Amino acid sequence: MPTLQKLVLLLCLSVASNAWSGGSAEDIQHLRALLQPISSLSARFEQRIVDADGFELQSSSGVFQVSQPNRLRWQVESPMPQQIISDGVTLWVYDPDLEQVIIQPFNQDIAATPAILFSGNLEQLDRAYFVRQLSGSSFELQPEQGGSLFSRMTITFDGRAPSSLALTDNLEQTTTIRFSQLELNPLLADGRFKFVTPDGVDVINSVN
After folding, report:
1. 122-to-68, 114, 127 alpha-carbon distances in Å
2. How many domains does the chain have?
3. Is residue 36 part of a domain?
4. pTM for the full model?
């Protein structure tokens, strides 16, 4: 699975449960208190992927927007344009250079993903992850179950706003995403999370 699609799956899927088992109740409550007020988010991002030796594999930048429930817009502007958009029902992956859009159902069956961070459904936070507060502004989350695409994730806050995410996979490749020009709880039009296929673009549609 391409890195960008893998990352977006992590950011936009949600899960649901209600047990308290992953980490101390105090650490979990601190993280929940920071995430709970976020119903929408808009920011510019800088993404950098490095291997286990710190060698840069890929970098990109663009715009990230998310709105509950499960609506997402991840628009890469540089170096190669690409859009991944979800309205919570359908997921569109548009590659202008290939003149191709892939349309697929929004999949909510992947366990142990960081989806719950911005989905508004935080009841599963401790079930899906072991949560540990590293400092006053950073939290490490490790999946409680196997099958996750990433082995650990760190979310860091500047005040009450998320400033960066770092996700490390089983090969010790780390994807770091830093946010700038961040707005918390902006009013985002529904049309931002729908994709209209341009004329002449090939469509690969797996929606039943």
Report:
1. 12, 10, 10
2. 1
3. yes
4. 0.82
